[in-house]
Structure formats: structure tokens, C-alpha cells
Design goal:
- This protein is an alpha+beta fold.
- The chain has two domains: about 1-185, Ribosomal Protein S5, domain 2 (2-Layer Sandwich), CATH 3.30.230.10; about 190-320, GHMP kinase, C-terminal domain (Alpha-Beta Plaits, 2-Layer Sandwich), CATH 3.30.70.
- Helices cover about 35% and strands about 25% of the residues.
- It has ten helices and eleven strands.
- Strands 1, 2, 3, 4, 5, 6 and 11 form a seven-stranded mixed sheet that branches.
- α1 runs parallel beside α2.
- The longest helix has 20 residues, at about 215-235.
- Bound molecules: L-homoserine.
- The site of L-homoserine has 14 residues, from α5.
Length: about 325
């Protein structure tokens, strides 16, 4: 089986310089599925995102010395943490498991939010080690290692969060076996309004409740919509993007886990959203809009509504982030 993104070239790597050197990396949150494209579509946003500080250490092996922003939910044990495990897979692939690393993970986004929280951490870790070692290959080559992190986090190695977090922009996973990942164009003036209602929806559980078998007529509706969305992205046709973002397979089930999902959708559409749906496996919801003002107005009204039913929330407005991970220092 041939992966389309697997030309990792260990030979170009610079040797580690010994203890002391360090790097601070940010990797973005992502909206996976994009309503109709379950497990095959995703895009990166500008905020929120996670940060990793990584230093070379003299003692071989990986140590996680600090995690902040997780309320104690993530393991410091390097054998159990998705960041260190995916970094370890990468080091193994380039025969560098003997080096020593110290990792700090700073969670700047909620866990279990549907915004690719584990992906942002994993990608920040992988981008940090790649940069630290002077590996100049395309960041997309890290995708198989990032997918290992996803597998560990929720029991399934899907790529629709990790691929856009790594590569930036709007990404299609055309195939998993072999892996074939395509970066899509998108209208530059598309805004994304995200609201995270403060309820916990673990991806592992949100995957277990979805239907395993579907009717042919439903498949026809769904792939028509996916093709319509991808066409709309290529054609810069925001109306086509909007009318294609419909999901008859997954949303009817998962929406039950999100407080007042359909009421929030009606509100967002009435306020001028192009489309509205679940971000990843939820509970975050997102709307595409044609301008920043409409996006801000939507989050204000949705947050007010959530407050009125005693649910706290966080909200973000972003364009699509074409850069992906970046070095902060
Ligand atoms: N495609 C994945 C799912 C994304 O919907 O389960 C998880 O955030």
C-alpha cells in the first residue's frame, strides 16, 4: 500500500545539540466533518489552539514535565500521553529514539469540545520535534504519526482534525488506505463563528452512537452534498457551499447530545449564516458567514441563548487558517 505523503527523509536531519535548546510551538483548533464530510473534510481556524514547549535533554527518553490548562485530565506519563506517543513514533521512524526530550503542554482550548483538542496538542508536539531536529520535509509527512495520537485519544485514527491542523487550510482526506490527502481552495472572505457549549461529548462515545449501515438513497444525498461543497470551494460559490452543508447521516443522531441544537441552527440561519452544523463530534457548533460582523452577532446571540438555559460557553470568530502550526519562539 502506498501512502501519498510518506517520503520522510531521515537523512536530512541535523544532530541534536545536547541539553538546553528549546522551541515553543502553536497548533490550531480544527473543524472536522464540515457537516456533510464525516471523517473526510476539515479546516483549521486561527484560534483557539494548543502550545508545546520542547527542549532537548541529556537523558535519553521523553519526559512530560508540565501540563497546564487541562484541569488535571491529561496524563503526565509519556507512555500514555498522545503528544509524547506520536513524537515517539516519529523518532522511531527516523532512528532517533536515543535522544532526550522534555515536553511542556499548554492547553489553550477545551478538551472534548469537538474542536480537535487532542489533534492540536499532537500536531504542536510533532511540529516542535520536526523543527527542533531541523527536518525540512513537508509537515504533511507527519500525518501518519499524528493519526496514531488520534487513535490513542479516541480509539480511531481519523485524519480530518490532524490533517488541517498540520497542513493548514481546508483539507480533504480522499482515501485512508492508502492515505491520500488533498488541500482544497476556499473563499478568502469566509468567516467561521464557533460556539462551544460547556457540556462534555467525548469523541469516542460520539462515534459509538452513529449508524453503522446506511441506505443507498441516503448515501446518494450525502455524496451529492460533499461533491457540492467541494465544488463550491473551488468555484468560490458561497451559496453552493451553504446549500451543500447538510448532513442526513450523523447530525440527526449527534445533535441529541447538544443542548438546543436545532434552535441554535434556526437562530444562526435567521441571523444570516451561510450554514450551521456540528464541529467534529460536538458539542461545539459552527456557522459560516460572509463577514465578521455577522459571525460576531451570531456568537453573541447563541451565547445569550445558552446562558438563558444555564449552560456556559466559549466562542471564537475566525477566518480559515491557511498556515497551520507555527513557531512562537
Ligand atoms: N470525524 C471525527 C468524528 C472528528 O466526527 O468523529 C472528531 O472530532
Amino acid at each position: 500500500m502506498e501512502n501519498k505523503i510518506q517520503d520522510l527523509t531521515a537523512s536530512v536531519l541535523a544532530p541534536p545539540s545536547g541539553g538546553g535548546g528549546g522551541i515553543h510551538v502553536f497548533a490550531p483548533a480544527t473543524v472536522a466533518n464540515v457537516v456533510c464530510g464525516f471523517d473526510v473534510l476539515g479546516f483549521a481556524v486561527n484560534e483557539p489552539g494548543d502550545e508545546v514547549i520542547m527542549r532537548l535533554a541529556n537523558k535519553p527518553g521523553i519526559t512530560i514535565s508540565k501540563i497546564t490548562g487541562d484541569n488535571g485530565r491529561l496524563p503526565l506519563d509519556a507512555a500514555k500521553n498522545t503528544v509524547s506517543v506520536s513524537v515517539q513514533h516519529y523518532l522511531k521512524s527516523i532512528n532517533r529514539t536515543h535522544i532526550g526530550l522534555d515536553i511542556e503542554l499548554h492547553k489553550k482550548m477545551p478538551i472534548g469540545s469537538g474542536l480537535g483538542s487532542s489533534s492540536a496538542s499532537t500536531v504542536a508536539g510533532l511540529f516542535a520535534i520536526k523543527t527542533l531536529l531541523g527536518d525540512e520535509t513537508d509537515p504533511a509527512t507527519l500525518l501518519p504519526f499524528a493519526m496514531k495520537g488520534e487513535e490513542m485519544a479516541c480509539g480511531h485514527g481519523h485524519a480530518d482534525n490532524v490533517a488541517p491542523a498540520l497542513m493548514g487550510g481546508f483539507v480533504l482526506i480522499r482515501s485512508y488506505e492508502p492515505l491520500d490527502v488533498i488541500r482544497l481552495p476556499h473563499p478568502k472572505d469566509l468567516y467561521c463563528a464557533i460556539v462551544f457549549p460547556d457540556v462534555d461529548v467525548p469523541t469516542r462515545e460520539a462515534r459509538q452512537i452513529i449508524r453503522k449501515n446506511i441506505q443507498m438513497k441516503d448515501a446518494v444525498t450525502q455524496w451529492g452534498n460533499i461533491a457540492g461543497l467541494v465544488s463550491g470551494l473551488f468555484m468560490n460559490d458561497i451559496d453552493l457551499i451553504g446549500r451543500s452543508m447538510k448532513d442526513i447521516l450523523v447530525e440527526p443522531v449527534r445533535s441529541m447530545l447538544i443542548p438546543d441544537f436545532y434552535q441554535m441552527r434556526e437562530m444562526a440561519m435567521e441571523l444570516g449564516a451561510v450554514s450551521f452544523g456540528i464541529s467534529g463530534s460536538g458539542p461545539s457548533v459552527f456557522a459560516f458567514t460572509r463577514d465578521e460582523e455577522t459571525a460576531k452577532h451570531i456568537i453573541q446571540k447563541l451565547q445569550q441563548h445558552l446562558t438563558s438555559i444555564s449552560i456556559g460557553s466559549n466562542a471564537y470568530v475566525s477566518t480559515i487558517n491557511d498556515k497551520g502550526p507555527r513557531v512562537l519562539g
